[in-house]
Design a protein that fits this description.
two-stranded antiparallel sheet; Farnesyl Diphosphate Synthase; globular
């Protein structure tokens, strides 16, 4: 994991929010260089993924990554109580609306007054990351919606600590995970609903794998992603969950969650043969990583309370070599 980004201070008053970075780095070149800095210094997994990104796509991916990282940190790491973090995210949403070109008071397409037309990404935002995102979105014809959905997920994190059923958890993934896959598809020139639906399987499966890997860490933050009705249906109880009780009922419950995530990864593989082969390499890599987490959970007998499942360095290296071979083949196919 790379060093944590220090964003600067968010200025918060009763009447106004000024996000860290506002009205800085006025040129597009400076804004994009800032996004590259964020991408190259933040997380090891992204640095590996960036090795398998075509040069002409790299800046776009870095801009999108910076957008996701900044919004996520507003919700998770800003040194403020939940209600203030919500206001920070509101302001981030407002700046997204400004850079998209919405009139004042409008935050999404469905709120536009009838008859009002706008030119997408024609507005002026205050944050350099959003100016870089506007350039990417104009070039790659990316709509406003996936960016807006991600902010809704960051907001949900402030108030939604438990999920009563699978439908609620799936809805959360619809906002928090699936839009990332849509953004990647747009960057590679794919604007197709069936492709987005297939990508959702991979994105949601990867998020599920991460949730089941981190049940103990999430509980430390009073978050329970495991659907409550499924906890109870497997003979486990919420009381047992809160004290991290490892028993046969827990292992059956975790086995059920692992198997569902595997099924979703499998469904997502249908997309690989229908997209740019270089993007397919990214999907293979994300799928292999997620499935490796699920395999680790299985190997330790589905006990994720006493030991966090991890993927060993040898396994990581073998996956890297496999993906590198696929990448070389994909480059040849793309240039043929």
């Amino acid at each position: 994991m790379g060093e944590k980004i220090v964003w600067g201070e968010h200025l918060v008053s009763d009447d106004e929010i000024v996000l860290a970075g506002y009205d800085s780095l006025p040129t597009l070149a400076e804004a994009q260089a800032y996004c590259t800095q964020i991408a190259n210094s933040h997380y090891e997994n992204f640095l590996i993924a960036n090795k398998f990104t075509p040069p002409e796509k790299r800046q776009h991916i870095e801009n999108i990554y910076a957008y996701c990282r900044y919004g996520d940190d507003l919700g998770d790491d800003a040194p403020h109580p939940d209600e203030v973090r919500w206001r920070l995210l509101d302001e981030w949403e407002d700046d997204l609306a400004r850079v998209y070109g919405f009139p004042d008071g409008v935050r999404k397409i469905s709120d536009l007054p009838e008859g009002v037309e706008i030119v997408p990404w024609s507005g002026t935002g205050r944050h350099p990351i959003l100016r870089a995102v506007a350039e990417t979105s104009t070039a790659m014809k990316i709509p406003h919606e996936p960016y807006w959905k991600l902010i809704q997920a960051f907001k949900m994190d402030q108030t939604k600590k438990r999920f009563e059923n699978w439908e609620e958890l799936r809805r959360y993934c619809y906002y928090s995970a699936d839009p990332v896959g849509h953004l990647f598809l747009y960057v590679y020139g794919h604007n197709d609903q069936k492709m987005r639906d297939l990508a959702d399987y991979t994105c949601t499966a990867l998020q599920l794998a991460n949730h089941w890997q981190d049940v103990s860490r999430d509980l430390d933050q009073e978050r329970i992603y495991m659907p409550v009705d499924e906890i109870e249906a497997h003979g486990y109880s919420l009381k047992e969950y809160l004290v991290r009780s490892d028993n046969e009922a827990w292992r059956k419950l975790m086995r059920f969650q692992v198997e569902r995530a595997r099924e979703w990864f499998t469904k997502g593989k249908e997309l690989w043969n229908h997209i740019d082969p270089r993007l397919a390499v990214d999907l293979v890599m994300f799928t292999m990583g997620g499935e490796a987490i699920l395999n680790s959970i299985e190997r330790q007998g589905y006990d994720t309370w006493r030991k966090r499942p991890t993927v060993g360095r040898v396994k990581q290296f073998m996956m890297y070599l496999h993906v590198r071979r696929l990448w070389k083949k994909a480059q040849r196919e793309a240039s043929a």
